[in-house]
Write a structure and sequence with these properties.
Chain A: Its main location: membrane. The complex is a heterodimer of chains A (352) and B (508). Chain A is an all-alpha fold and 352 residues long. Chain A contains 15 helices and 2 strands. In chain B, β7 and β8 form a beta hairpin. Chain B has 508 residues and is an alpha/beta fold. The chains are: A mainly alpha (352), B alpha/beta (508).
Chain lengths: 352, 508
């Protein structure tokens, strides 16, 4: 048994790695078939990710909201819920951060945390609503969160247009004192848009790990996720825990929105379509096996692939959409991890 | 001697354990051969080897004297070996016939020939007295009928040797009787049966010979006519087993649980516990006897706060608890061994250690200001595991990986260790083997003798009769009689449980 447990943990690391390799391999085949040179293609992609300090900076920048979105999905998942509404929670968080960053006048040391907190509260409320509906009336959270995504998309657009419109489909920018941007980080990475958001993301990841693994709250949340009947029998408040889980998950997503608001963009665009970050969060959580530290690594990979995609187009003439195909393939192989397990066990048997 | 099946010196290993160690099983033609062993002794593994699901590391298998290699279930089928699984493998929205032909559909010009198949099913059903309607849908027929469909499935495929995996576990007493008749008919027609079970009564009733395995080792084969349940139990467990529980006269003192005019409604708003009155005193075991579905489950859920109470009062140690939360009631001093250990008793994905603090994790020393202290939790778990002899590789093993008996021991350890003044035990030995049952019974008596009030609910008459100091008979949500087990026979009790009136039975 002990051996199996160890294997289980090992599998959680090996399977994603293997999926990535397989995704890249199949991507190469697709490039070959479509008449591109995979070596130069991947060379350009790699270069775009790690080639110079600026690309590394951009990779980390792109990863910050992805980490938080992944944590949001992973947290809900660990407690038996599927939060597909990260996208909407991210949007309301973004807006809340922009508003607080724009409207209030505070010293930076207070203004930044307050703006992030506003985003967390907004996202938390947006997650709490489906949580309460699920807890009270057993409405499935997947359906409600999908609906809430659309409500978030159009109401944030409307609110910007009505109250925060600076022209050119953009909101007013946030004040300097609320910004996460850093000349120090930018200089260190040759002028990338890297900001302090990554620190926030890592703190939240540690927070998630601590809550779930070390506290009575996490013990209850996971117990309710695994077995509601036993949780009731043990005297836990199942309804409260479901609502709480969705609220925390939503708060994580809201903070992801604040990364865009206070870091990368410093304002919010009137959005006509979803950002996609929330949905990518599902993929990140899956690849990271819902583990906070796995999620950080997965988000870095996805962030890097996304920021390096134009490079691949530029230098090797490979269409940048191919990166989406590779990401899709990696997700496919993670989801098909059964297959990989099968192959790996075969290998290890033959090796013996 | 002519054997239809010979499994000689079979050895099967899994990483870390030897599931079957040098086991020999020889089945004669036309006999019912019992395979007896405790949960986890290796019965299922041995049968899976015979059925081709596992490959043995050592040993040989002979069918009708011919050495064979059974590489997968299809080979087993071809050799005439059929398995009636404990958990049925049926498609619920298919008909009986469709299920039976599944996997080997007879075709006529590319179309499935249901008619001929149905005719054949009907013939088989008649021949063995199964009375199964070939056109009935699985979802519309009873569990007993579904089992017969499983039997028909093997017969349809031409099975000569049928393996029954704990077939009576899911059946009602009436259905068990019918199944025994069916088995008789099968052997009368020349089939051979291997019956996997840990119920000694059944073996004594239907089997010709019995092979016993214990902890993966073959103990031997005995003629059933030359043995008795005590000897079989001793062979299975490896020591003397006491069926009659030794206990002193109860010394009841104060009333711990007092239920007055309790009404509990079920999810369809129908009252299932109706103005029920009950008292349990410290130092006694009150057994609730009754046929399943007469309000036992709802009564317990009402007392423990898992189900809302419509009206009436529940007092524990004189304190009104009728509308308190489960947690408050637990804290008042109630231990609850739930009816369904997988659904209520355990979080299967948690380790056995984490499960040991399911009601106390928020208290010191297991946590401090909301932060868990895993060292203390696992320390506690380790000592409970030792004290209650829970067989687990370690306290870090997921509860799911433990056998049923050990899971139950874990629950009992947890509930008893809190020293509750009221201990509720609902079906505490369901599905367990004699060794575990004996252990649990002695624990319940021990708790009684420590001055706890024990409320026992069981559908097993033996258990209620053996353990209780008083028996309350529940019928349609009411306690219809309270009797003294020493002055009552099983027949009288059975009559009361069925709603009959008692005349001669002394009321206490």
């Amino acid at each position: 048994m002990q051996k199996l447990l160890k294997n289980q943990r090992l599998f959680n690391i090996v399977v994603p790695l293997f999926s990535i390799i397989l995704g890249i391999l199949v991507g190469a085949i697709i490039m070959l078939v479509s008449g591109y040179d995979p070596v130069t293609g991947y060379g350009a992609l790699f270069n775009g990710m790690f080639g110079n300090p600026k690309s590394i900076g951009e990779m980390i920048r792109a990863a910050s909201p992805l980490i938080l979105a992944g944590l949001a999905v992973g947290f809900a998942f660990k407690t038996g819920l599927f939060n597909i509404g990260v996208e909407g929670q991210l949007l309301v968080g973004w807006l809340a951060a922009v508003y607080v960053g724009y409207a209030l006048d505070l010293p930076a040391i207070i203004h930044v945390p307050v703006s992030i907190l506003a985003a967390a509260i907004a996202g938390g409320i947006w997650g709490m609503i489906p949580g309460l509906l699920k807890a009270r009336f057993k409405v499935h959270e997947v359906i409600v969160t999908i609906m809430m995504n659309y409500i978030a998309l159009y109401s944030t657009a409307d609110i910007i247009k009505r109250y925060l419109y600076a022209g050119n489909e953009k909101s007013f920018p946030i004040k300097e004192s609320a910004s996460l941007a850093s000349t120090f980080l930018a200089d260190m990475t040759n002028g990338s848009r890297l900001h302090w958001g990554i620190v926030v993301a890592v703190i939240v990841a540690v927070f998630m790990w601590f809550i779930l693994e070390k506290t009575t709250t996490g013990y209850e949340l996971k117990a309710v996720g695994y077995n509601q009947h036993a949780s009731m029998y043990a005297g836990m408040n199942v309804q409260k825990n479901i609502a709480l889980s969705m609220t925390i998950s939503g708060a994580f997503a809201g903070i992801a929105g604040s990364m865009e608001a206070l870091g990368t963009f410093q304002n919010m665009t009137v959005m006509s379509a979803f950002t996609g970050t929330g949905f990518d969060g599902i993929a990140v959580a899956l690849l990271g096996a819902n583990n906070p530290f796995g999620i950080i690594l997965a988000a870095l990979l996805f962030g890097g692939l996304t920021t390096a995609a134009p490079q691949m187009n530029f230098n090797a003439n490979v269409p940048q959409e191919l990166v989406d195909v590779i990401i899709a393939l990696i997700i496919f192989f993670v989801a098909a991890s059964y297959l990989i397990r099968y192959i790996l066990t075969r290998f290890s048997k033959e090796g013996k | 001697m002519e054997y239809v099946i010979e499994m000689n010196n079979i050895r099967k290993e899994f990483p870390g354990i030897v599931a079957n160690d040098n086991i020999t099983l020889q089945v004669k033609k036309g006999e019912i051969h019992a395979l007896l062993g405790e949960n986890g002794a290796g019965k299922s593994t041995l049968m899976n080897v015979l059925f081709g699901l596992y490959q043995p590391e050592k040993g040989e298998i002979k069918v009708k004297g011919q050495p064979v290699k059974i590489t997968d279930p299809n080979v087993a089928n071809r050799l005439g070996i059929g398995m009636v699984h404990q958990h049925f493998m049926l498609v619920h929205n298919f008909t009986v016939t469709e299920n039976i032909i599944l996997g080997s559909e007879p075709t006529k010009g590319g179309k499935i020939n249901i008619k001929d198949a149905a005719k054949k099913v009907e013939e088989l059903s008649k021949r063995y007295g199964l009375s199964v309607d070939p056109y009935a849908k699985i979802e519309d027929i009873s569990v007993g009928m579904q089992q017969r469909v499983e039997i028909l499935k093997t017969l349809y495929r031409g099975a000569e040797i049928l393996i029954f995996d704990e077939p009576t576990a899911v059946l009602t007493p009436q259905e068990i009787k019918e199944l025994i008749q069916i088995m008789g008919k099968l052997v009368a027609e020349g089939k051979s049966i291997i019956l996997i079970t840990h119920k000694l009564k059944e073996i004594m009733e239907v089997c010709d010979r019995c092979t016993v395995i214990r902890k993966g080792k073959g103990i031997g084969t005995v003629e059933v006519s030359e043995t008795d349940p005590d000897q079989l139990a001793a062979l299975m467990v490896g020591r003397e087993v006491h069926f009659k529980v030794d206990k002193q006269e109860a010394q009841p003192t104060d009333v711990v649980l007092e239920v007055k005019d309790l009404v509990v409604i079920d999810s369809r708003n129908i009252p299932v516990v109706e103005e029920l009155n009950l008292e349990v005193k410290a130092g006694e075991i009150l057994g609730i006897a009754g046929v399943d579905g007469n309000g036992q489950t709802e009564l317990i859920e009402g007392i423990t706060g898992l189900r809302k109470i419509k009206s009436g009062s529940v007092k524990i140690n004189g304190k009104e608890t009728a509308h308190l939360s489960t947690r408050k009631i637990t804290e008042t001093g109630v231990g609850h061994i739930p009816e369904d250990r997988h659904k209520h008793g355990l979080v299967l994905d948690y380790t056995i250690g984490e499960n040991m603090v399911l009601q106390t994790y928020y208290q010191k020393p297991y946590s401090n200001s909301g932060v868990l202290n895993y060292n203390k939790i696992y320390e506690k778990a380790k000592s409970l595991i030792e004290e209650y002899d829970v067989r687990t590789p370690s306290e870090f093993t997921p509860a799911r990986a433990l056998s049923g008996g050990n899971q139950q021991k874990g629950i009992i350890a947890r509930e008893v260790d809190r020293s509750p003044s009221l201990l509720i035990a609902s079906q505490p030995t369901r599905g367990l083997d004699v060794g575990a049952i004996e252990f649990i019974h002695s624990k319940l008596i021990e708790e009684r003798d420590k001055g706890r009030a024990v409320l026992l609910v069981s559908f097993e008459l033996d258990e209620v009769m053996n353990l209780s100091d008083r028996i309350a008979v529940i019928y349609e949500g009411k306690i219809v009689a309270i009797v003294d087990p020493k002055e009552t026979t099983e027949q009288e009790l059975g009559l009361l449980m069925a709603g009959g009136k008692k005349e001669s039975v002394g009321v206490s």
